[in-house]
Amino acid sequence: MTEPIEFTPASAAQMSAMQALRAALLAQHKVLIANDRLQYEAIFGPVPTGRFVQLLTEDPWFRWLDPLSRLIVALDEWLEQTPPPADTGVALADEAAKLFRNADAEFGERYRLALQQAPDAVLGQGQVLAALRVAPQSPPDVPDVPATAG
Predict the structure, then answer these.
(1) Phi, psi dihedral angles at 5 (to 5 degrees)
(2) Are 65 and 32 contacting, i.e. CB atoms less than 8 angstroms apart?
(3) Are 5 and 80 in contact, with CB atoms under 8 Å apart?
(4) Using CA atoms in the order 118, 122, 123, 125, what is the torsion angle rounded to 10 degrees?
(5) CB contact at 8 A, 121 and 32
(6) Is this model's pTM higher than 0.85 or not?
(7) Which pLDDT tens digit goes with each residue over 54-108?
């Protein structure tokens, strides 16, 4: 027989913090898309909106945004659950913190470039980090400290 898995629903405070995080991530995502579109069109010329939506989902130029897009979708799915599990919310906040603080090579490189190109992205970064400060996350890894002899 398997042990029942303990389920802890998200608190109202966690839900509120995660909604704020989602809003900050979504706003930053829009800024990053707009900036990338400007960069793309500077090289390849103007792109009609319908074609741009197709490029956004299919062109390798925009693939670096995929981790952020997937994170926003995962947050939406988490928020739709009744009630959402607290531990999954913590995992999503951890993922957001990792993405924006210790970004992987491709996302990090392109993200830092966007921060240099778009003042709105710098403002959005501040909003994302402010939302992360409130969102419940896993405790940071603390290295083992050897006991001192007394």
Answers:
(1) -85, 130
(2) yes
(3) no
(4) 130
(5) yes
(6) yes
(7) 999 999 999 999 999 999 999 999 999 999 999 999 999 999 999 988 766 789 9
